Amino acid sequence: MKKKISLSILLIMAISLSTAFGAIGKWNAGDPYIPCYQLESVYSYHTTAIAPGQTISFDIPSCSPSKTIQIGGPEEVETKNSPTYGYECSLSSDQGCCIDDEGRYYILVCGDYNENNDNYNSNFKVVTYDAHGQIINNDDGVFQDNGCLKIPIYDNGRKATRFEVTNMSGPEPQGHFVIYSVNPTIYTVTPTIYYACCYDCRKKVGLPATILYPKVDIENFAVAGGTTVINDGKLLTNLTLSQAHSRHPSRSRTEGCSHKTTQELNLRDCQRE
Fold it and tell me: What's the CA dihedral at 61, 66, 72, 75 to 10 degrees?
């Protein structure tokens, strides 16, 4: 019975650890160095009109070479009141190192909204490309219930750098023939892209207190025409100022003290306000 209880406890601990590990990856918020950090982004293009048979090309935004990123917080580490930390991040040389699920990143293309059908027009074709040429087209995408087309950015390790949208309501060359749709229509499309960038991040280090609040060592300090207060870095605990031979008594003021004195100033009793 004890053995079963022990195994159950170990199993619960293992599940808890795996959950935390999966939530924060192979690092902990606050670590001095976090390699291959995944930064997810959403980019929406302007609504664009496309004439029948016309093709418009859209560039996929490139990742910024460097960014300041706040890492941590309850959304990332699943811990209530978890702090965030500032990191200076540079683009990872391997932009696939943080992509564990290619299906999470895609292009969503929506045509005009049709009130009669209560959805978006989808009479268009989308093709993705990288530097080596075409990657995928509509056949690899999925039309949503609302008529929008969802097409992946990644395919077998290749990442799209641009995509083309063609209005299929117009003529399309097919060999020596030209096929016309029944109702050529100018469509407007509004693409949105969901993508990620991989960064190597180093925790920002604040200035030490000795720089922000430097200590000033005074080797010698004396009152003009009077007694030396500090000599060779050693503080004289008492200072007596003699009264000058004039109609007015001599007065002195020491910065940091809350009072003035005309006869005797005890430095030990001088307190900063």
Answer: -10
Predicted confidence (pLDDT) per residue in 182-232, tens digit: 577 888 999 999 999 999 999 998 766 555 556 666 666 666 666 666 666
Q: How far is CA 240 from the centre of its chain?
A: 61
Token pair, residue 128, equals 């993705």
Residue type at position 59: D
Q: Are 245 and 231 in contact (CB under 8 A)?
A: no
33-36 long-range contacts (CB < 8 A, ≥24 apart) are 33/200, 33/201, 33/202, 33/203, 34/71, 34/87, 34/200, 34/201, 34/202, 34/203, 35/92, 35/97, 35/200, 35/201, 36/92, 36/94, 36/97, 36/98, 36/198, 36/199, 36/200
Which CATH number is correct for 26-203, 2.60.120, 1.10.3470, 2.20.25, 2.115.10?
2.60.120
Residue 272: the pLDDT is 45
Q: Which residue has the higher pLDDT, 237 or 147?
A: 147
Alpha-carbon span 261 to 98, nearest angstrom: 70
**Structure tokens, 224:** 């003009």
Tokens coding 31: 């670590």
Q: Which two tokens stand for residue 30?
A: 């606050």
The upper half-sphere exposure of residue 167, i.e. CA atoms within 13 Å in the direction of its Cβ, equals 21
Q: Which two tokens stand for residue 69?
A: 């990123």
Reported as half-sphere exposure (CB side, CA atoms, 13 A), residue 138 has a value of: 16
CATH 2.60.120 domain range(s) in the chain? 26-203
Phi-psi region of 120 (alpha: psi -120 to 50; beta: other; left: phi over 0): beta
Q: How many other C-beta atoms lie within 10 A of the C-beta of residue 224?
A: 4
